[in-house]
Amino acid sequence: MSFLEIANLLGNLGEFVGTIAVVMTLVYVVFQLRINNEEIQLNRIAWEENNRLSRVRSLASHAESMSNWRARISTNQNVASIFLKASDGIDTLEKVERLQFHMLVMELFNLTRVSYEAADAVGEEFQKAAVAANLSQLIARHKGMSTTWHSSEKSSREVSPEFYNDIEKRLEQKASG
Predict the structure, then answer these.
(1) pLDDT tens digits, residue range 126-156?
(2) Which terminal residue of the chain has fewer beta carbons within 10 Å of its beta carbon, N or C?
(3) Is 122 or 20 the better-scoring residue by pLDDT?
(4) How far is CA 25 from CA 22, 31, 39, in A?
(5) In what helix (H) or strand (E) does residue 78 lie, and over which residues does it extend?
(6) How far, in Å, CA of 86 to CA of 103, rounded?
(7) Closest CA to 168 of 154, 155, 150
(8) Cα angle value 112/86/88 (rounded, 5°)
(9) What's the CA gap between 170 and 168, in Å, rounded?
(10) Where are the domains of the chain?
(11) Concatenated DSSP letters for 10-58?
């Protein structure tokens, strides 16, 4: 066997080994793509579950906050009395009662705003709308709450413009129809 034949044989062998290496690399890449695809699917499922749990926690937190707020009215005769008196307007309240009523109602506004923003953050549009509808209904029916809402307009608008505008839009709809 001459040197040229050996060189040709080695060249063919190198080509064969190179082809096998390319095929093995392609198999490895396909295998890695499958693993990555599975990981992506698992991450997507985990993200969806985490998002669902965030929505559940948001709803539960809002329900608990509202329950605690209502309990303060229903379990304390003085607070209930102030809340009922204010339904005719805050002018019926004494100075201390006005302060207590203002703090109670501002707490409700803040609880509602936080729930609204939490629902928005997790993409829970139904909950967001329900929170806004409930608050606007209370404001529309209760003169004291309406007065407090409108007196806190500047700070409410600055803290959460979207929340404020949603409530205002709903109040305008209730007033016009």
Answers:
(1) 889 999 999 999 999 999 999 999 998 888 8
(2) C
(3) 20
(4) 5, 10, 21
(5) helix 77-86
(6) 13
(7) 150
(8) 120
(9) 5
(10) 3-176
(11) HHHHHHHHHHHHHHHHHHHHHHHHHHHHHHHHHHHHHHHHHHHHHHHHH
At 154, is the secondary structure helix, strand, or coil?
Answer: helix
Question: How far, in Å, CA of 97 to CA of 131, rounded?
Answer: 27
Compute how many other C-beta atoms are within 10 angstroms of the C-beta atom of residue 55: 17
SS3 143: helix
Q: 3-class DSSP state for residue 71?
A: helix
The two tokens of residue 105 are 């109602």
DSSP 88: T
Name the pLDDT band for 157 (thresholds 50, 70, 90): confident
* pLDDT greater than 80 at residue 58: no
pTM of the model: 0.69
Q: Which two tokens stand for residue 112?
A: 């509602």
User: What are 61's two structure tokens?
Assistant: 């937190």
- CA distances 30 to 20, 26, 73, 90, 157, Å, are 15, 6, 64, 72, 54
What are the structure tokens assigned to 28, written together?
């490895």
